[in-house]
C-alpha cells in the first residue's frame, strides 16, 4: 500500500508540547510564535520531518497555520477542514479559526499589545506572508522577529530525519522537451524581464525544468532542492548529493552546476554583492532568501516564478501521455466500481477495505499496461455516509466506517504513472438513494456539465467559470466551501498552480492546462457528494454563427458516473445529451481493456439515461 491507515495517537502530549514551546519562547524573550503548515521548500504536501503544525496541534490537514501566544493559541483552517479540525484538535488548547474569514495576520493584529515580540521561522514563511505579519505587528506596536532556529525543532526530540529519495530522470520522450531547451527558454524569459537570475524555490518547478523526479514528499514525485536560474550562465541545482547516483549526477552536470543545499545562501549573497538583479516570487520564495539577497545589496525584482506558467501549459507529448494514463486509470476505476456494485451493500466492506481494493486494481492495471503504478497522487478520500461530508476526510483505523445500504459512498483518489497524474472523484449509491440525495447529486452534475461544456473567450478568469459550476446549487439555496478546480501536473504535483477555478481564481485558463472539474455538496452528519473529472483547456476555435473564437474543455477522465443517483427530470435535453455522449465515450475507450463481469458492468453503467 502507498498509504497507511494508522489511527493518530490520542495520547499525544499536546498540552506538554504547548507548555514546552511557551517556556522556550519565554527564555528567548518572545511573546508568541507563528507555525505555518509549510516546509523549507514551500510545498503543499510536506515530508514527515516538516510536519511541525501536526506535531504541535494534532491537525493533519494539508493547509493551515497556528499562532501560539502566552495565554491563548489558535489553529487556522479553511472550509475543507472545519469538521476535521474539531475532531483532531483539543479546543481547550487551540481555538479553531477561519483561515479565510479571519486570517492569521488579522487575528494576531487584534491580539497584540505594544512592545510584544512575535517569532517566526523565515524559511517557512514566504516573503508575502512575512510582510503581512510584519504589517500586523507594526500596526499594533509589536515586533516580528526572524529566528535563526525554529523553537519547535529544539523541543521535538524524536523528529524524523529529512527524506533522501533517489533522483531519477524523466525521459524526453515523456517530457516532450529536453531540459536544455527548457533552460534556454527560461533564460530568454529572464532576458525579457531584464533580470540576471531567478530563485526557484518550488520543488515542482525545479523538477519540470531539469526533467527530474524523486520521492521526497509522499505522493508527489519531487526532489526537495533549490535552484538559481541565471540568464547568461549555467543554472545551479542545490541538492543533497546523497540523492544522486553517479549516472544521474553526470547527466545533470551536462547542463547545470551541482552543489549542496548549504551553499545556496552563500551563492545568493554573492549575487547580491555583485549588484545582480534577481527575480523573486514573493508568493513562493522563503522570506529568508529575500532578506539574504537584500542584506547583500542585491536588487530584488518581484515577479511570478518564471517556470510556473510554462509548466502549466502542457505540450502535446505530455497531454498524450496523460490521456494514456487516464485510460489505464479509468479501466482500474471501472473494475473497482463493478466490484463495489457487487459487494458494497453486503455489510462487511469498510472505508479502508474498499480503498485498499481500489489501489490493488490500479496496481494491476498499470502492470498489465506495462506502465506500473509508481504512487498514488494523494491519500485516498474514502468516505461512507456522514464521513463523505468531510471534504478532505482521511480514514484511519479508529474512524473506519462500514458501507451501509441506503447511504452514499464518496471516493476521491488518484495515481502517479510515469506518463501522467490522475485525480477522480465518484459518489456511489449503496442500495437505494433517497429523493433528496438524487436531487443534490443531479444539481452537482448539472454544475459539472456546465463547466465541462463551457465555451469562453481568452482572459476569462477561474472565478468567472466557477459560477457555472455553482448555479444549479445556488438556485436551491445550496453551495460548497471549496474551489471547483485546481491545476494538475504530469507525473508531478496533483495540485498545481497558478490557475484555479474558484471564487478567488483571478487568472485565466490557457490552452494545454490540465484542471479539475469537481463541484460538490455536503450535508453535515449525513452524506457528501462530489463529481470530479480532469479537463484540458482546448485552443480557441470558431463557433458556427459566432464572431469570436472561444476556448473550451476536453474531459480526459474516463469512468462511469452513477446513473442511480441522476434525477433525469432535472436535466435539460442538452445535459442528457452530454451525459449519454460521455458514457458512450467511456464505454468505447475502456471496453477493450475489460472482460467478463467488469465488461458487463461497464455496458450497463453507460447505457443512455432512461434506457
From TrEMBL:
InterPro entries given in the database record: Creatin/AminoP/Spt16_N, Creatinase/aminopeptidase-like, Creatinase_N, Pept_M24, Pept_M24B, Peptidase_M24_C, X-Pro_aminopeptidase_P
A Pfam family this chain is assigned to: Creatinase_N
Domain Peptidase M24 intervals: 322-538
Domain of life of the organism encoding this protein: Bacteria
GO molecular function ontology, one term from the record: metalloaminopeptidase activity
Keywords carried by this UniProt record: Aminopeptidase, Hydrolase, Metal-binding, Protease
SUPFAM superfamilies tied to this protein: Creatinase/aminopeptidase, Creatinase/prolidase N-terminal domain
Domain Peptidase M24 C-terminal: residue ranges: 549-609
Domain Creatinase N-terminal: 17-148
Listed Gene3D superfamilies: Creatinase/methionine aminopeptidase superfamily, Creatinase/prolidase N-terminal domain
GO CC annotation terms, alphabetical: cytoplasm
Family that this chain belongs to: Belongs to the peptidase M24B family.
Protein name per UniProt: Aminopeptidase P family protein
Organism: Kaistia nematophila
